[in-house]
Write a structure and sequence with these properties.
Elements (H helix, E strand, L loop, with lengths): L1 E2 L2 H13 L5 E6 L6 H11 L7 E11 L2 E10 L7 E3 L3 H13 L4 E7 L3 H10 L4 H4 L3 E10 L5 E10 L3 H23 L5 H15 L1 E2 L11 H5 L3 E2 L1 H15 L3 E8 L2 E10 L2 E5 L1 H7 L16 E2 L13 H10 L1
Length: 328
């Protein structure tokens, strides 16, 4: 292979490394004194995923009058380009880690520009407290960074740790889904209107779930704790309600904030043309499905941390529901 410019050299090496995973790559060029470190940096710029796949790159040259015979020797690790994700937003990182956690993968591989590395690392570390990842039984993450001076990119290998093994996680998900389907069936039997189904869900929660904190397993922080064990804290209740309403086709959001200067979680739902708050934890505590139903502004000193971006208005107040229920 005769290569006349550095751009041609970079393109050829990128193809042979990325597609063919060659360990020795030979070519002929009139170029003198090719800087292999510069070439490596340009190869990674062309295909950033290779940063986590290539261990070393070295070159040797034999001068043949006007031409030079180059041999580039490449060593690889066990990572393939298809394993690696190029990311530049927090949403990408969290979505890909959620997908990895749902599949119970032990490691995930990212590359990003050095200017984005702080954002990516922050997004990785935040998943430990992310409600979605608690449902996947993630107990911790351990990122390690590969930063090479020759490249404008950094590689990040994320080790994911779980509170249970894959078999247990799969069994728990099946149990959780079975219970969700049972509750959804009960809710649908109440009528076709969304408010009737939502009210039936709240009644079920009040009649069947209990508040529990401090179990040895920590499952009270997950939707599994609420749905299967029937015991959870505000986080578990709110996650479970989101899962149930999703199956019912009722828009629902997980909201986090503080109450009495402590962390708290509740929900927003969309019923009869309006978004409003519901607090399942308080409803369970008061044994009243409609306690805090239809709230658009709390007066109990709580703060809202989650940015939901919705106008709050309730067209389905408690009196409407109670009068409709009493007429049945």
């Amino acid at each position: 292979m005769i290569l006349r410019t550095l751009n041609e050299v970079v393109a050829y090496l990128c193809k042979e490394i990325n597609h063919n995973r060659k360990r020795e790559i030979s070519f002929v060029s009139s170029l003198m004194n090719i800087d292999i470190a510069e070439v490596y940096g340009r190869v990674v710029s062309e295909k950033p995923e290779l940063l986590l796949c290539v261990e070393t790159m070295a070159s040797s040259v034999i001068c043949l009058s006007l031409w030079n015979n180059y041999t580039v020797t490449v060593t690889y690790n066990d990572v393939y380009p298809s394993f690696v994700k190029l990311v530049d937003t927090e949403y990408q990182v969290k979505s890909m880690l959620l997908e990895a956690a749902d599949a119970h993968r032990k490691q995930e591989y990212f590359v990003c520009r050095k200017s984005d590395s702080a954002m990516v690392l922050s997004a990785i570390k935040s998943i430990v407290t992310s409600p979605e990842h608690l449902n996947s039984f993630v107990s911790g993450v351990q990122p390690s960074v590969l930063d090479r001076a020759e490249s404008e990119y950094v590689g990040i290998i994320v080790r994911l740790m779980y509170s249970c093994d894959y078999r247990t996680a799969k069994e728990r998900k099946n149990q959780r889904n079975k219970e969700i389907n049972r509750i959804v069936s009960l809710a649908r039997s109440a009528g076709i209107e969304d408010w009737k189904k939502a009210y039936e869900v709240l009644k079920f929660c009040v009649n069947n779930w209990e508040y529990e904190l401090g179990s040895a397993t920590g499952l009270e922080f997950t939707s599994y704790g609420a749905l299967v064990n029937k015991r959870a804290v505000c986080m578990g209740f709110s996650l479970a309600v989101c899962a149930i309403f999703k199956e019912l086709g009722i828009p629902c959001k997980y909201i986090c904030g503080t109450k009495n200067n402590e962390g708290h979680a509740w929900n927003m739902i969309y019923v009869m043309g309006g978004w409003f708050y519901i607090d399942v934890t308080d409803a369970i505590g008061m044994k009243d499905p409609l306690f805090h139903w239809g709230v658009t502004c709390f007066d109990d000193g709580r703060t809202v941390i989650t940015e939901h971006g919705q106008n709050l208005v309730c067209h389905c107040d408690k009196n409407y529901i109670m009068s409709a229920v009493n007429r049945r």
